[in-house]
Amino acid sequence: MKITDLNSLSEIDKSLIYKAIEIRQSAYAPYSGYKVGAALTDAAGKIHTGCNIESAVLTLTSHAEMVAIDSMVKSVCLSFNRIAIALRGTGESPATPCGLCRQKMSEFDKSGNSIILIANLDDNDQLINIHETSLKELLPYPFGGDNIG
Ligand code: THU
Ligand code: ZN
Fold first, then answer.
1. pTM of the predicted model, to two decimals?
2. Of the N and C termini of the chain, which has fewer Cβ atoms inside 10 Å?
3. Phi and psi of 135, rounded to 5°?
4. Would you tell me the crossing angle of helices 99-107 and 64-74 to the nearest 10 degrees?
5. Which residues are catalytic?
């Protein structure tokens, strides 16, 4: 995982970060108070966004990354090549996508080489830092469809 900054990112990556930060404001998180935003570019070049949506039945919660991926699938595209995730992370190590989201991402990033940009924000929603990584690094041994069939 390498730390990077906005100025060294390409225009598309910058805009994915901004879109993830923006959609994070739409998160419905009355129970945890923890808002997450995600924005991805699919293989057709289209951008999809998502935010977390909680429910009083907590296991019904949709995670931001999952909502963005579901939007992509609904537009009949089954892979993404870059995704930005915006979430609060003020600890020593960065806040990163959860294990469920890593697994969900792996379904639509079979190579594990898609760019994952993680924007950590402080308590005032200000950008602290950006980390760049991949599923190869975050989920080196995903459960795959070939394990079922
Ligand atoms: N959350 C996400 O949306 N994505 C993640 O990868 C981490 C967790 C949401 C779920 C829940 O609404 C809140 O953050 C706290 O777990
Ligand atoms: Zn998650």
1. 0.97
2. C
3. -70, -30
4. 20
5. 65
